[in-house]
Design brief:
single chain, four-stranded mixed sheet, 3 helices, alpha+beta, elongated, four-stranded antiparallel sheet, 258 residues
Length: 258
C-alpha cells in the first residue's frame, strides 16, 4: 500500500505532465494564426549636434537627433498566446571604414501589452482601491460624469491592439558613433522591428518583407527612404520627397529615394 507522500508525488507528476503537454500545444497552435503586419516610417527631421549625448559622458562628440512619423498595423501579431509586443525603430548608417559592416542603433521603442493582461477580476477594483486616475476623482465629479453619461452615453472604443499612428515622434535614444563623428554621413535608413513575447513558447522576431513561413507573412514596408545626416550647422532636415539628389555636406536636405 502506497504512503501519502508517494501518492502526492504521483499526483504532482501527473499534473506537471498535463501542464507541459497543454503548454506545448498552445505554443504550437499559433502556427495556424495568420500574420500579415504592415508598417510605414518616414523621416520628419534630423539634426547633428556636438556635445555630451548623455549626462555621464565625459567628452563631447557628435550625435544625431532624429524625428520620424510611424504608422503600423501589428494587430495580426496578437492572438491567444501573445503576452506583449516589443516594437522598436532601428537606424542603420555606414561605418567610416568601407571594410567594416554598417552600424545599427535603436532610437525608439515601446511595449504594447495584450488586452488579455487586463484581468477581469482585479482585486484592487473589487475593493474600490483602483489606482487609475478615474477612481481618484471626487464624488462630485463622479456624480457629474454619471449624469452626463446618462444623458449622452458614449460608445466604447473598439481599437485593435498594435495599431500605431504617431506623428513627429521624438527619439528616446541618440545616435552616436565610436569615432565620435556623424556629420555628413550618407546612406542612412530607419527600419521598424518587433519581438513577439508569448505566454508560453519561443520568442519570434521581425520577418523581413518578402519572407514568410506558412500563414506568417513578412512585414509590408517598414523601411524609410535613404537620407543623409547633415553637417554641424544646427539646422534641421525637413523631409523632401522625390528629389533624388544627394546633398553636399552640411546642407539641410535629405536624400529621399536612393
Amino acid at each position: 500500500m502506497h504512503s501519502s507522500l508517494v501518492r502526492l508525488q504521483n499526483v504532482f507528476g501527473f499534473f506537471t505532465t498535463v501542464a507541459f503537454t497543454i503548454a506545448t500545444l498552445v505554443a504550437l497552435s499559433v502556427i495556424v494564426s495568420p500574420q500579415a503586419p504592415s508598417a510605414s516610417i518616414a523621416l520628419r527631421n534630423v539634426q547633428v549636434v556636438k556635445g555630451r549625448p548623455h549626462y555621464y559622458s565625459t567628452t563631447k562628440e557628435e550625435y544625431a537627433h532624429i524625428k520620424f512619423d510611424l504608422e503600423a498595423d501589428f494587430s495580426s501579431l496578437f492572438n491567444w498566446n501573445t503576452k506583449q509586443l516589443f516594437v522598436y525603430v532601428l537606424a542603420t548608417y555606414p561605418s567610416l571604414t568601407p571594410s567594416s559592416p554598417a552600424s545599427q542603433a535603436i532610437i525608439w521603442d515601446t511595449i504594447i501589452a495584450s488586452p488579455s493582461q487586463e484581468h477581469p477580476l482585479n482585486p484592487l477594483e473589487l475593493l474600490g482601491l483602483s489606482s487609475t486616475p478615474a477612481s481618484k476623482s471626487s464624488s462630485s465629479s463622479k456624480s457629474k460624469s454619471k449624469s452626463k453619461a446618462s444623458a449622452a452615453p458614449t460608445p466604447k472604443t473598439t481599437a485593435k491592439p498594435g495599431v500605431l499612428n504617431l506623428k513627429n515622434v521624438k527619439p528616446k535614444y541618440q545616435i552616436t558613433d565610436v569615432s565620435g563623428k556623424l556629420a555628413d554621413r550618407g546612406n542612412v535608413t530607419l527600419e521598424v522591428g518587433w519581438n513577439v513575447q508569448p505566454w508560453v513558447g519561443a520568442l519570434t522576431w521581425t520577418m523581413r518583407e518578402g519572407s514568410g513561413w506558412g500563414r506568417w507573412q513578412g512585414v509590408k514596408g517598414g523601411r524609410s527612404e535613404v537620407f543623409v545626416l547633415p553637417g554641424l550647422k544646427g539646422k534641421k532636415v525637413e523631409t523632401t520627397v522625390g528629389t533624388g539628389a544627394v546633398p553636399k555636406g552640411g546642407e539641410a536636405s535629405p536624400v529621399v529615394g536612393a
